[in-house]
Amino acid sequence: MSVLLMADITVFVLSVLVGFEVISKVPATLHTPLMSGANAIHGIVFVGVMLLAATAASVLGYVVVFVAAAFAAMNVTGGYVVTDRMLTMFRTGRQVRS
Amino acid sequence: MSGFDTTVHLIYLACATCFVLGLHLMNTPRTARRGNQVSAAGMAVAVLVTVVVLIDDGRIAAGAVIALAAGAATGGVAGLITARRVRMTAMPQLVSLFNAVGGGAAALIALGDAMAHSADLATLPPQTTITTVLDLIIGAVTLSGSLVASGKLAGLIPGRPLVVPGGRWIALLLTLVSAGLAGLYLTHHGGAGVLGGVAAAALAVGVLLTLPIGGADMPVVISLLNACTGTAVAMAGFILDSGPLIIAGALVGAAGAILTQLMATAMNRSIGAILAGGYGTGDEAVAIPGGTAGAAVREISAEDAALQLAYAHRVVVVPGYGLAAAQAQHEVVALARALKERGVDVSYGIHPVAGRMPGHMNVLLAEADAPYEQLRDLDEINPEFPGTDIVLVVGANDVTNPAARRPGNPVSGMPILDVDKARSVIVIKRSLGHGYAGIDNELYTLPGTSMLFADAKKGLGALLAGLREYAS
What we know:
Chain A is mainly alpha-helical. Helix content of chain A is about 80%, strand content about 0%.
């Protein structure tokens, strides 16, 4: 097992723990935007698709890159935009109170 | 490591920090929007840095650049349009759809990477091949499973559990086929073609697993699938040896896992039982031992109910699925505002699973401008019911059933809103039909309860009209 892999696994496990720690503090009120926001974060898969594109070298490979890029771009842009829309409403609610 | 590599690495690390910080800022409504913006900024920087890396690398083929750009434009525009247009009540299916495409992209990375390495497949280390298989299976199951879940939530596929004859066995068989093919790939007896077979089998498994799950269990299923996508993305990170993917994937995996657990607890269901499916057929009555089945219910007219509300001191509104389904969030907030203007103390008691995804009801009420401090969760509101004059239950059922405090029935042990402890209860509901647990709600036959049989939207409208007419 390489040093690189060990480092990757360490990062993975620690990130899971950080995730548990951070998410368990979010109140139930915000669970829908939280899930939507987390959903947008896994849109990082778009970076993965870009790295994949660097190795694609056949027509079939290009097709895979195209579909994957479309999927990932939809995930990342849609996810952030819709989360922002939801959270704007929460902010309006706060202003009504004050 | 060259200076360029170090810089790139550090910037990626900063992006990952933005994701953690963004999630952290989501712990209060005041900072949540900034949190999402911090997270989005991190994402934008990560994408830009990757562009620089690809240009510096210079190996990318022109065809791949075109495919990438065209795909990004298509998906980006589609995502933007749907995100702008979606109605807040349709949020669960949209989140599920975005989750599906994320899982699909992760699965395609596994497939594409295997295709790119088809010449030197035998030399790939186990950490690449194993994560390829895991990424492909989890990603493909998530893609088809989330699409089915999204279809069910949108009403394109019937929300009731659809039981395919022998579906469990077919799913098991397909899982074995998928595992067998994965074994061939892992032992270098097949390439991308074999992986295509794995993906096809996994897609079918995703459909077969989600179809039998009833609409009421969807909040749990969406959370679980979200966790799956996170894991698939982390696996893609292992394949590509990309730190940001591993970190972001792990964060989302953890988020999904926690929400899944919270939802399952709030619904009094084990995750295993939910996945087994078949729950929530909802039509047949189940006799509860010690229950009050057959007792008479008291009906009330909208005018009388409005009058009672107008002269109450303290009113708690309990909104449920029926309110979300009827899109009556604006009506309920208008009624609450009118009561407030008369000096009635109004708040909302919100059960964690009210609506169709975790926290969905809060979003709907926020959309209708309900003041944030009036929204109370289960633990906050329960001690206040004894001092409440009237509880107005709008389209909520199982979460108010006092039978949950007794053992031996389908809702036993489920955390409920103790609305029966208030002085009186008015329930707006279309009929005496059952909730997803399929049992009679004992609340409806209590002496202090009156029923206003109406669709949530019409019932609330009638109450508001009555309030204005009689009590102005």
